[in-house]
Amino acid sequence: MSAGNKYRQADLEEQKEKPPAWALFAPGAGQCEKQGYDDWTAEEKAMWEAGQLRVKWGIGQVSIRLPMQDPVTFVALVYGYLPFVIPIWWLLWALISKLVNGAPRFFPVFGLSIAIGFALVNELIIKQVCKKVLPASITSRPPEAVCKHPGMPSGHVMNAYTLMVWCFLEAALDTMVHFEWLVMIILVLGPVPWARVYNKDHTVPQVLASAVIATIMGCIAYYIRRTHFPNHEQMWDWYSANGGWRNPYAPKL
Fold first, then answer.
1. If phi over 0 gives left and psi between -120 and 50 gives alpha, with beta otherwise, what is residue 246?
2. CA torsion, points 180, 85, 116, 132, in degrees to nearest 10?
3. Is 16 helix (H, G, I), strand (E, B) or coil?
4. Would you place residue 5 in the very low, low, confident or very high pLDDT band (cuts 50, 70, 90)?
5. What residue ranges in 84-192 does DSSP mark as E strands?
6. What average pLDDT is seen over the chain?
7. What residues are paired with 65 via a beta bridge?
8. What is this structure's pTM?
9. Which contiguous run of DSSP H or E holds residue 23?
10. Mean pLDDT to the nearest integer, 38-44
11. Are 95 and 89 in contact (CB under 8 A)?
12. Which residue, 5, 57, 151, 195, has fewest beta-carbon neighbours within 10 Å?
């Protein structure tokens, strides 16, 4: 065998080496880990044999399969990270407004408080109760998910829908209604449950239950803001396509 053929054969063998497992934190947490070939499903192993799947990562409990099979997969991944991106944006907004104005804007501070506070409620109370009272057939994630922790309820959906419902109520019940903001809120956060199911990180019952609980949490957040922190500026007071439409049903608080 010529030297060139030996090198080509070695390259093929290297390409066919089964992906090993690696985890920055606890394996199965899905926070920052590469899932090993042995934990893949039979369908995923067949895709690897066919050259359609090379590696599986779990970053922030979002499963990333490379190479991506289609543009819809990329869209689902983006929506999977929006529950993180928006609180980070609010944190930066609060810090920048603190530096520029001497005090942080109320809206991002309150929104960040909602995201952190209700995330703690979910992780420390709701998720623990679900693990104890619900069977594994309901709490277990799909076998394709890199994260193996119980998935009832979905933290991503809980955070996204709590913020979505709160923001939607703020925009819909404000003195001046800006319809472009209502549409934007739904478009940005509404598809998160679909994305979690499409990416095979959660089941349909898990995201539906999460959306219902989060809707209640979002209503509570709106009530707290209206009753305890009234008369604060909103995002649409600074950035809007027009002056908005006067809302005759706006709460008088």
1. beta
2. 110
3. coil
4. low
5. 176-177
6. 90
7. 56
8. 0.89
9. strand 22-23
10. 96
11. no
12. 5
Residue 32 has phi, psi (to 5 degrees) of -155, 85
Q: Which of 246, 73, 117, 106 is nearest to 174 (CA)?
A: 246
Q: State the amino acid at position 22 in one-letter form.
A: W
Cis check for the bond before 153: say yes or no (omega within 30 of 0). Answer: yes
Q: b or e along 226-247 (b: 16 or more beta carbons within 10 Å of the residue's beta carbon)?
A: eeeeeeeebbbeeeeeeebeee
Token pair for 6 = 């030996």
Placement of tokens 């819809």 in the chain: 72
Residue 32 near residue 23 (C-beta atoms within 8 A) = yes
pLDDT band at 104 (very low <50, low <70, confident <90, very high): very high
Q: In whole angstroms, what is the distance from residue 137 CA to residue 12 CA?
A: 40
Q: Do 185 and 171 form a contact (C-beta atoms < 8 A)?
A: yes
Residue 13: pLDDT over 50: no
Q: How far apart are the first and last CA of the chain?
A: 85
Give the pair of three-digit tokens for residue 34. 């590469």
CB 152 within 8 A of CB 134: yes
